[in-house]
Design brief:
Blueprint (H helix, E strand, L loop, with lengths): L1 H28 L4 H14 L2 H12 L3 H12 L5 H13 L3 H37 L1
Helix pairs in contact: 2-3, 2-4, 3-4, 4-5, 4-6, 5-6
Length: about 140
């Protein structure tokens, strides 16, 4: 009888430990509040780091509009990730994030302004070339 009590206690304590580990894992998968996400993004901008970017990606995949915005901000300056930044800003804006809506509008507006500037610069260069040839 004494052996059964000892093994029962052992089994019960193992089950409690397994439950605690599962609870810790579930808590780790939860999306943190916005200030925590923004702090991780700030550290990523200051120091770089694949781990912080991966964590932001996980939170964004879990639906955090703040994480989507912060990833969009990170990818916005990288030409190779521009399309992904646009997509992230759009998703976050649809989720109600006003900063993402602003950044999305700026990204859409910038190529048009840049294109207009380039065209006007080319026009001025070609006009100067024509004027120089006429002299």
């Amino acid at each position: 009888m004494e052996l059964f009590n000892k093994s029962g206690v052992l089994v019960a304590s193992v089950l409690v430990m397994v439950g605690a580990l599962i609870a810790c894992q579930a808590k780790e998968d939860a999306v943190p509040p916005a200030p925590v996400i923004e702090a991780v993004a700030q550290k990523l901008n200051e120091n770089g780091g694949a781990a912080a970017e991966r964590r932001l990606r996980e939170w964004a995949d879990q639906g955090s509009v703040v994480a989507k915005r912060e990833l969009g901000m990170l990818y916005q300056s990288k030409n190779t990730r521009r399309d992904e930044a646009l997509r992230l800003f759009e998703e976050a804006a649809k989720g109600g994030d006003s900063e993402s809506a602003f950044q999305l509008a700026e990204m859409v507006r910038q190529p048009a302004v840049r294109s207009l500037r380039e065209k006007s610069g080319l026009l001025l260069v070609s006009m100067r070339g024509t004027q120089d040839a006429a002299k």
